Amino acid sequence: MIETIHIYHTNDVHSHFENWPKIRLLLQQRQQMHNINGESVFLFDIGDHVDRWHPFSEGTLGKGNITLLNEAGYDAVTIGNNEGITLPHEALNTLYENAQFDVILANLFNEQQLRPNWVQPYKVYTTKNGVKIGVVAVTAPFTKLYELLGWTISEPLEELGKQLRELNKHVDVIVVLSHLGIHDDRKIAKLFPEVDVILGGHTHHVLLDGEYVNQSILAAAGKYGRYVGYVELAIDLEAKKAVNKSALLFETSQLPAPSGEMNEIQQYNIEGKRLLSTKLVNLPETLTTDWFTESPLAQLLCEAINEWCGADCAFLNAGLVLDHLQRGTVTKFDIHRILPHPINPCLITLTGEQLHDILRATLDPKWINMELKGLGFRGRIMGKFIYHDIRFDQQQIYIKNRPLQLDHIYKLGTIDMYTFGHFFPHIHEAEKQYFMPEFLRDVLAWKLQNVYPASKRCTSL
């Protein structure tokens, strides 16, 4: 006798709520259909559902996302790096306090090396016919960043191996929720033959019909809620093992829209704006920005980063600042609108020779129109590089109006984005100090309140 198990999964929604009403309707309808048919159905999210680029997620510090997951009827979720390292410690520690689903994650611990009380390394679910499904989860190990926020993250594949050795004793089917990326998912399938299903995310890969690696089926649904994943397992009830596995994706744009869809999407923005309506400062003048040349607002942000980090000099790309700040009252929403990125300030220690090479590289015109996605960047293009206490004069570079000394040690203030990618190899390899949990928008708000103290600001950060 065969039991069919139905699994629906999402990953890397990144608070793209424009797709959420359709996703919720599909999931609710499918759950209802399978329940009427007496079939077992499970819903999982693989992390990065929260993204603070959206004002609703910023205003609720992610708790609004949890309400949406509750409404859709999820059984379990794991966390991605956007939940893990873009929220302050206490915000993550309380994020799931009203969750009506399980939070599964094997490789997150607090500073006492204990798992927080809101998470479990694995969970065993039992189907209507008694099949035991073990669900275990791991997330990407941004070790240093987790430590700065008061967490410890262990090596995911090693931790997964520990949990599987225990889980194997009690279950018939094993499902891994993996916020590690496609390459590690393939590695899991090769290292652990007992794993039946790997539901993936992090690298935003799209597996239209799944991918078979050895005995495992890999499934993933891209990004931004553009797809919803579906895995079907056929279980031989005598052998208690999967005899057939298949996967497909539902394209969200082709799904029916619920009534009131556009109004609901708009309401998320309206509520976010309301939650971020706190007044920060009154500007006596409009601060403009320009992606292609120097501008007051980008220059002010660069100066703010330099001060915040205690640096000798600073630079950043103008494309970070998405719009002007208009004269008059500036709210948290206004700052969030122009700097939605979950990007932190960073201090880099470099030799003069390394700094010289980096600064010369920033002059390459290729950067200005370069389109960029990921690494925390939520804009469109890089734009021109903007500098503070850095000056170019023909072949000479000046730091604080003094010629750059190749054998000197310098402290460069910049953004963490440059340390994750391969923009500048010297930065990637250098000693770094990350400033967390503050984002660029927090630093700009702090600077504005210092530059315009007579504005009688209404609140502090």
TrEMBL record:
The keyword Nucleotide-binding applies. InterPro entries: 5'-Nucleotdase_C, 5'-Nucleotdase_C_sf, 5_nucleotidase/apyrase, Calcineurin-like_PHP, Metallo-depent_PP-like, Pesterase_YunD. GO terms for biological process: nucleotide catabolic process. GO terms for cellular component: outer membrane-bounded periplasmic space. GO terms for molecular function: 5'-nucleotidase activity; nucleotide binding; UDP-sugar diphosphatase activity. Coiled coil: none annotated. Keywords: Hydrolase, Nucleotide-binding, Signal. SUPFAM superfamilies: 5'-nucleotidase (syn. UDP-sugar hydrolase), C-terminal domain, Metallo-dependent phosphatases. Residues 6-205 form the Calcineurin-like phosphoesterase domain. It comes from the Bacteria. This is 5'-nucleotidase.
